[in-house]
């Protein structure tokens, strides 16, 4: 991912540790960037957090030295991304490596692919 721009929200489940750090900066939780990096928190880990037991949540909060309010903010932002994915609200952008002449084709294929990928995301009440 580009280090100057935050990662694509729709693709959060394939974010690297660095992408998670950029996202944390964007949601005003940048103070946790280093500790998340040290603990290897990537997009796959973030996606799996919705399946955590209470014990796993408490262990994560202790390991990352998070305040409860910050943890709640983290969860709300993850939920916001998941809801936007399910509603198809995320903007599809042409990647830097794709030729501009293929923009329309790329966007159509990407939208179809995204719709199939977000089926696995669960919306919790």
UniProtKB/TrEMBL annotation:
<dbReference type="InterPro" id="IPR013761">
    <property type="entry name" value="SAM/pointed_sf"/>
</dbReference>
<protein>
    <recommendedName>
        <fullName>SAM domain-containing protein</fullName>
    </recommendedName>
</protein>
<dbReference type="InterPro" id="IPR001660">
    <property type="entry name" value="SAM"/>
</dbReference>
<dbReference type="Pfam" id="PF07647">
    <property type="entry name" value="SAM_2"/>
</dbReference>
<feature type="domain" description="SAM">
    <location>
        <begin position="15"/>
        <end position="50"/>
    </location>
</feature>
């Amino acid at each position: 991912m580009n280090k100057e721009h935050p990662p694509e929200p729709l693709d959060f489940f394939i974010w690297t540790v660095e992408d998670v750090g950029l996202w944390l900066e964007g949601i005003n939780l940048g103070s946790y960037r280093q500790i998340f990096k040290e603990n290897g928190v990537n997009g796959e880990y973030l996606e799996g957090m919705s399946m955590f037991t209470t014990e796993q949540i408490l262990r994560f909060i202790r390991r990352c030295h998070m305040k409860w309010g910050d943890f709640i903010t983290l969860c709300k932002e993850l939920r916001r991304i998941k809801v936007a994915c399910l509603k198809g609200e995320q903007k599809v952008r042409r990647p830097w490596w794709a030729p501009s002449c293929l923009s329309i084709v790329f966007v159509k294929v990407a939208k179809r692919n995204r719709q199939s990928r977000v089926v696995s995301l669960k919306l919790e009440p």
